[in-house]
Write a structure and sequence with these properties.
Layout lengths: L6 E5 L3 H13 L3 E5 L2 H11 L3 E5 L7 H10 L5 E6 L4 H9 L4 E4 L4 H32 L7 H14 L5 E4 L6 H11 L7 E5 L5 H9 E2 L11 E2 L1 H4 L4 E5 L6 H13 L1 E2 L8 E2 L3 E6 L3 H6 L5 H7 L2 E4 L10 H16 L5 E2 L1 H9 L5 H15 L4 E2 L6 H4 L12 H19 L4 H8 L3 H10 L4
Parallel strand pairs: 1-2, 1-3, 3-4, 4-5, 6-13, 6-14, 7-10, 10-13, 15-16
Antiparallel strand pairs: 8-9, 11-12
């Protein structure tokens, strides 16, 4: 049998048994700890954190079942395998009901010991890997609270909404973190163990979006070679996040309204009603009040979605959160790229705080990612930021300049402002200034604008 690694604690009052197990496990590549009794074993568990424990059931003083109970009471995260003699199999089965992974009967078979320990260590590695991945997902999607009153107010409202079954409507500009909030509502509620499924309603035709939401039957349309479940069916017991719900076509709004009322639908091309239990969180950056008045959005659907509205503040209204957000993204992108950045320099941070962030948190994330990918570290310096960020302080030309110099300085400020407002897009900046794109490029070159 191949060797494998891991730390195993052997708890047995028989020194010969401890020695036999030590020799066998060390020959397989394990690090072995040993204790003659339950109390000593618990002390080693607390200090050494082994991946698994081989625990004898019959011991004087504190027996194996009592040790197992104490391990669970202290919430020590380890895999326990019981050692049992002939005649105590029933107690071993009882131990498994109380949380033990398996048991090994005496006398030992060397290959059987190796197989049980290998399976237990592989289980422990898989479990810790899942926990690590789950932690990385939680970190990636966690809410960045910051210190701003507006953000804390929105989070408090979302947490209260999460405890109910009510539909939540997230309002705010693009890039303010609506999907993050939707995941928060899911995580803080009773459905956190169920699926979270996001659907972007932008750019999909009525037919495609209807199929995405509700699925279709075989032969429902050209190319429907087999039946397909929709996202509503797949999200049963969980949460569906409808991003940009204001873009749902008028034709589909009627069917979606019926679904919100009944929690029932038919697949495209189907006649059988399908009932699902899902939580709806919708989001939009559109003015739905205006859309209702203009007849582009059903009023009754709007009221069905707008049960608990939560408005997310744009980043420019919570500038005090920018340093914390920047550090969060820096940590994430350094982990992904293995780059040695430690912090954002004071000068760069000042520029980030003063910038207006038309793209909100999403734009800040992109700026920090760019700095990490292109910069050298260990700090994000001023020259690691794009020109639109660095050029945010637009000062008036000095009074003692000549007419020509004054004119050039004013041109430079106008161009910098247009570039800033267009997030560095030269074509958009040229349109704002009423210039051809090539003319703007020549001006930028003559005025030494990067």
């Amino acid at each position: 049998m191949k060797s494998f690694s891991g730390t195993v604690l052997v708890v047995d009052d028989d020194p010969d048994i401890r020695e036999v197990l030590r020799d066998r496990l060390e020959s397989l590549g394990c690090r072995v700890l040993a204790a003659p009794g339950g109390k000593e074993g618990l002390e080693l568990l607390e200090k050494q954190s082994p991946q698994m424990v081989l625990l004898d059931i019959e011991m004087p003083g504190m027996n194996g079942l009592e040790v197992l109970t104490e391990i669970r009471r202290r919430e020590i995260d380890t895999t326990v395998v019981m050692i049992t003699a002939y005649g105590t199999i029933e107690r071993a089965v009882q131990a498994m009901k109380e949380g033990a992974y398996d048991f090994i009967p005496k006398p030992f078979e060397p290959d059987h010991i190796a197989l049980i320990v290998q399976k237990a260590l592989e289980r422990e590695r898989l479990k810790r890997g899942v926990e690590l991945l789950s932690g990385e997902v939680d970190e990636r999607y966690r809410l960045i609270v910051g210190t701003s009153a507006k953000m804390n107010q929105a989070i408090d409202l979302a947490k209260k909404a999460a405890t109910s079954k009510a539909t939540v409507l997230l309002l705010g500009e693009s890039g303010t973190g609506k999907e993050i909030f939707a995941r928060g509502v899911h995580k803080w509620g009773e459905r956190k163990g169920g699926p979270f499924i996001a659907i972007n309603c932008v750019g999909l035709s009525k037919e495609l979006l209807e199929s995405e939401l509700f699925g279709h039957e075989k032969g429902a349309f050209t190319g429907a070679h087999q039946a397909k479940k929709g996202k509503m069916e797949l999200a049963h017991g969980g949460t569906v996040f409808l991003d940009e719900a204001g873009d749902i076509s008028p034709e589909l709004q009627t069917k979606f309204l019926r679904f919100l009322q009944e929690r029932e639908f038919e697949r495209v091309g189907g006649t059988k009603p399908i009932h699902v239990d899902v939580r709806i969180v919708a989001a939009t950056n559109r003015d739905l009040d205006a859309a209702v008045k203009e007849g582009r959005f059903r009023e009754d659907l709007y009221y069905r979605l707008n049960v608990i509205p939560i408005t997310l503040p744009p980043l420019r209204e919570r500038a005090e959160d920018i340093p914390e957000l920047a550090h969060f993204f820096l940590k994430r992108f350094c982990s992904e790229t293995k780059k040695p950045f430690t912090e954002v320099s004071r000068e760069a941070e000042e520029k980030l705080v003063r910038y207006r962030w038309p793209g909100n948190v999403r734009e800040l994330a992109n700026v920090i990612e760019r700095a990490v990918v292109l910069g050298q570290g260990p700090k994000v310096a001023l020259h690691d930021l794009p020109p639109r960020i660095v050029g945010t302080e637009l000062t008036a030309p000095a009074d003692n300049l000549s007419y020509r110099d004054h004119l050039e300085a004013s041109k430079k400020q106008l161009i910098l402002r247009a570039l800033r407002d267009s997030q560095g897009n030269q074509a958009a900046a040229a349109k704002t200034l009423g210039l051809h794109r090539t003319h703007l490029a020549r001006l930028m070159k003559s005025l030494h604008i990067e």
